[in-house]
Every structure is written in structure tokens, then in C-alpha cells.
């Protein structure tokens, strides 16, 4: 309990101090924002500050900040320190600068900003990855809420025919929210969703506090524990708990809200502070899981199943259903904007006018075809969802590395403190590449070499070495790129 409370203090106090520092580095002023200068009644719509903050929170808070921490807490209480520290120094910084840079560049989506600051080569790679991530995110956020609705709310078999009806209803909502103006659907129903989300998180928090730490490890028992499946804390923890610490997906959502913020000085609370709130949600659900593991709940229980167990344990049958509803809200309010962001990215790439309703509908339908095919595969294949989630986690963090590189270039070009983005970018480069070099969904280097020599090598020696080389290259090359592109960037017109 002490470690959990220390983590909350780091998140709140550290976030308040560092958030102001990030704001000072960026330097918001009183200039007109895209919400007013480019108002089109569809995507560029000035909205009230409280509504922007709530929509940003619901956009970024998918199932990641709940399912990820529930799995991450299996590494021990260290999660209560790494989540807030990472959120303050990396995740919230990432969200703030992406949103503010977009606001300074006509509300551009990240691929367009990537072209300006990183050049054509990086943009081509990034665009492919971000489009894949948006599709995977949308599919994951049809799959998980659908299964929670059918399994935990309706008490039915998630492999039966009913699940496809529920998937179809969620997909229909996504189609509508993707096509309609942002203030007509998302702007109106999100306050209701937000209330459900906040109340469910408060309910779990109260349950954890009433437990009093009786079922949490003592402070002297060590921060890091052996994972039940023998997974390595670095890099697996930071891939697993991605959304609660830092998520590249958030960049695609911050650029949506950059088109609805009326004043630049609203940016810190809209982008930075809302990521801190997501970090708090991640810590609360991680604490709930740790309490139940301390009471004897099997640590191999799936993360989705743990959501229902935690909810009912701390809030009773009725309250538990309400808490589950809060968890269902999270992916739905991220899935709709994932598809919306993908529509805008493709529209920018091919100059498709989004004021034209027919073009909006046509482009949206094209997007949903591959999404449906991926969903069918994930549901019909025995290991389909696990594979989908792993690729989602990896691409999510890889996209964040690209965004941090872009922030470095922006800050260095503007003559500002770029180290605040360079250092977390270097760390996450190591995490992302050491993970993909080691894991079977990537190169599986140690396993392959072990097979060649007839040994069971489960170490990360090769992957850590290659990951470190990639990190050094990031640390060296990104600032050089900023210096090389300075004149191009200063003369570039969006």
C-alpha cells in the first residue's frame, strides 16, 4: 500500500511540476488555433475546454490502461513506480507535444507532420505502421468490449452466435461516429461515458483503500518479483503496460483534439493532464489485481477475466456490473476515434475532401472492410487474439518512438530543450527493438540461435546488445537530422 501511495504522489506532484515545465518549453501563446481559423463544422469545431479534456481522456483510454497493468503487476510492486515515472517523463510529454505541434501546424495528422519534420523516408515507414496500428486498434476495441458485454454482462458464451450480433452493433456505432461531425456524436455522448468510467475507477480505488494493504506485498519484500511465466521485466513490462505509461496511439488522438481546442493555453490540461489521469486509472486497476492475487486468485487468470473478478470483488454484483460497463466504455471510445483518425490520415495522404459527405462515407466503408476481415480471423483462429494483441502492443510503442523523434526535431529546430524528448525516445528505442529481436512474433534471435546449436537459450544477450545499438543510433542520428533539416522545416508550408 505504501508503494502504491508513493506512486500516486509521484504521478500527481511530479506531473504538476513537469507538466508546467513542458508547457514552458513549448511556449503556448494567444494566437488563433485551427479550431477557429479552419472551422468546417465536421472535424475543425471549437468545443468547450471541459469537453475537450473528457473526449481526449476517453479517446486515449482504451482497454490498454486496464488489461496492460493487470498483466504488468505480475512483475511486482515496481509497477507502482514505473507507471507514474514513465507517465510523467514520457507518456504525458508525448501526448502534450504531439497535440501542440499539430495545433501549430493547422491540426495536421502525424503522417503529415512526420513528412515536414522527419522527411520522406521516415514518413513512408511511419505511415504504413500507423495505418496498421489504427486498424489493429479498431479491431481490438471491437473484440474486447464485445466479449465483455456477452460474457460478463449477458452471461453467455463468447464463442456463440450472439457475439457476432454484438460486434455488428459496435461496428455500426463506429461507422456512424466516424462519418458524423465530431461535436454531433462524440461530443454529446462522451460526457455520459466519462461519468461511467470515472465512477468505476473510484469504486475500485475505494476497494483497494479499504483493503488497507493487507493483501499487498510489504515494502521490504522487494519491488521486483519473478513473473509466473518467467518473462523478463525489460522489455516485456513496458510493452505490456504500454497505454498506462506511453502509447503511440495517443498521438493520433491528440491530433484530433488539436482541431477542437480554441486556445493554446488549454493544451497542458487537455493533453498532459489527461494522460496523468490515464496513468492513475492504470495504477488503480493494477492495485486491484495485486490485492486479489494476494488473496489467492490464480495469477494465470486472463486479464479480461480479471476485470470481472476485480469489479465484483470491490463493488458487489450491481456495482461490479457498473464497473465492467466502465471498462467496456474505454475501448469503444477509443475504437471509434481510431477509425476516425485513420480516415483523416488517408484523406490527407490522398487529398480527399472530407467536407463532402459522400467522400467521407466512401472512405470510411473502405477502411471497415479490412477491419472486419481481421476481426473474423482473430475470432476464428485459436491464437488469433493473442497474436493481434502482441502486434498491437509492439506497433503501438514503435509509433511512439517515431513521434518522440519528431518532437526532438521540432524542439531542436526551434532552439528549445530537446533532451526532454530525446532521452525517453532513446530508452523506448531500446525497449522496442530488444523486444522484437527476442520475441517469436519478431526475429526470435536467441531461440533461433539456440535451435542451431541445440541449446535452450532464453536469455536476451543478443537482443539487448542489438537494442542498445539501435538506441545509440537514435541518440546520435535524430539531433543530426534536426540540424540537417532546419532550413527545410523553417520554409515548409503546411
Description:
The protein has 494 residues and is mainly α. It has a single domain, classed as Amino acid/polyamine transporter I (Up-down Bundle). The chain is built from 19 helices and no strands. InterPro entries: CstA, CstA_N. Its main location: membrane. It is found in: Cell membrane.
Main traits of this protein?
Amino acid/polyamine transporter I; 494 residues; mainly alpha; 76% helix; 19 helices; 0% strand; globular
What's the structural domain tally? 1
Structural class: mainly alpha
**What would you call the shape?**
globular
Number of helices: 19
- Backbone CA Rg: 22 Å
Provide the residue-averaged pLDDT.
86
Oligomeric state of the chains present here: single chain
How is the CATH topology named?
A: Amino acid/polyamine transporter I
Distance between the termini: 50 Å
Give the proportion of residues in helices: over 70%
What's the number of extended β-strand segments? 0
CATH class: Mainly Alpha
Strand content: under 5%
Biggest pleated sheet = none
Q: Could you list the spans in which at least 5 consecutive residues all have pLDDT below 50?
A: none
Looking at the overall shape, the CATH architecture is Up-down Bundle
Order of helices and strands: HHHHHHHHHHHHHHHHHHH
Amino acid at each position: 500500500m505504501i508503494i502504491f501511495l508513493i506512486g500516486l504522489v509521484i504521478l500527481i506532484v511530479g506531473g504538476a511540476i513537469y507538466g508546467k515545465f513542458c508547457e514552458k518549453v513549448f511556449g503556448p501563446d494567444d494566437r488563433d488555433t485551427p479550431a477557429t481559423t479552419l472551422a468546417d463544422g465536421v472535424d475543425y469545431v471549437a468545443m468547450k475546454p471541459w469537453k475537450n479534456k473528457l473526449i481526449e481522456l476517453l479517446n486515449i483510454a482504451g482497454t490498454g490502461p486496464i488489461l496492460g497493468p493487470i498483466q504488468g503487476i505480475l512483475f511486482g510492486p515496481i509497477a507502482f513506480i514505473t507507471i507514474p515515472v514513465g507517465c510523467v517523463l514520457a507518456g504525458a510529454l508525448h501526448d502534450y507535444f504531439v497535440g501542440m505541434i499539430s495545433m501549430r501546424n493547422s491540426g495536421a495528422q502525424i503522417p503529415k507532420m512526420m513528412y515536414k519534420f522527419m522527411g520522406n523516408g521516415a514518413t513512408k515507414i511511419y505511415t504504413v505502421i500507423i495505418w496498421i496500428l489504427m486498424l489493429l486498434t479498431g479491431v481490438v476495441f471491437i473484440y474486447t468490449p464485445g466479449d465483455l458485454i456477452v460474457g460478463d454482462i449477458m452471461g453467455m458464451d463468447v464463442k456463440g452466435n450472439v457475439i457476432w450480433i454484438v460486434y455488428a452493433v459496435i461496428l455500426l456505432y463506429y461507422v456512424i461516429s466516424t462519418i458524423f461531425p465530431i461535436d454531433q456524436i462524440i461530443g454529446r455522448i462522451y460526457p455520459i461515458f466519462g461519468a461511467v468510467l470515472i465512477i468505476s475507477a473510484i469504486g475500485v480505488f475505494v476497494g483497494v483503500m479499504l483493503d488497507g494493504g493487507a493483501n499487498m506485498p510489504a515494502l521490504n519484500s522487494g519491488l521486483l518479483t519473478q513473473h509466473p511465466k518467467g518473462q523478463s521485466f525489460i522489455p516485456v513490462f513496458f510493452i505490456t503496460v504500454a497505454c498506462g505509461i506511453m502509447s503511440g496511439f495517443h498521438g493520433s488522438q491528440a491530433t484530433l483534439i488539436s482541431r477542437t481546442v480554441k486556445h493554446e493555453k488549454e493544451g497542458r490540461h487537455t493533453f498532459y493532464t489527461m494522460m496523468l489521469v490515464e496513468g492513475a486509472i492504470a495504477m488503480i486497476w493494477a492495485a486491484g489485481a495485486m490485492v486479489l492475487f494476494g488473496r489467492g486468485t490464480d495469477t494465470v487468470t486472463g486479464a479480461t477475466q480479471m476485470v470481472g473478478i476485480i469489479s465484483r470483488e470491490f463493488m458487489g454484483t450491481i456495482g461490479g456490473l457498473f464497473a465492467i460497463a466502465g471498462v467496456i466504455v474505454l475501448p469503444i471510445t477509443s475504437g471509434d476515434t481510431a477509425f476516425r483518425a485513420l480516415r483523416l490520415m488517408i484523406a490527407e495522404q490522398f487529398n480527399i475532401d472530407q467536407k463532402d459527405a459522400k467522400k467521407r462515407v466512401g472512405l470510411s466503408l473502405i477502411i471497415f472492410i479490412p477491419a472486419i476481415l481481421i476481426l473474423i480471423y482473430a475470432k476464428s483462429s485459436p491464437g488469433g487474439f493473442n497474436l493481434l494483441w502482441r502486434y498491437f502492443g509492439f506497433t503501438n510503442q514503435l509509433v511512439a518512438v517515431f513521434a518522440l523523434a519528431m518532437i526532438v526535431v521540432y524542439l531542436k529546430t526551434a532552439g528549445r530543450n530537446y533532451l526532454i524528448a530525446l532521452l525517453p525516445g532513446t530508452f523506448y528505442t531500446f525497449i522496442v527493438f530488444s523486444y522484437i529481436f527476442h520475441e517469436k512474433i519478431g526475429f526470435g534471435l536467441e531461440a533461433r540461435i539456440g535451435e542451431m546449436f541445440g541449446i535452450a537459450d532464453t536469455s536476451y544477450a543478443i537482443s539487448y546488445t542489438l537494442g542498445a545499438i539501435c538506441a545509440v543510433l537514435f541518440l546520435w542520428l535524430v539531433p543530426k537530422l534536426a540540424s540537417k533539416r532546419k532550413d527545410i522545416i523553417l520554409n515548409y508550408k503546411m
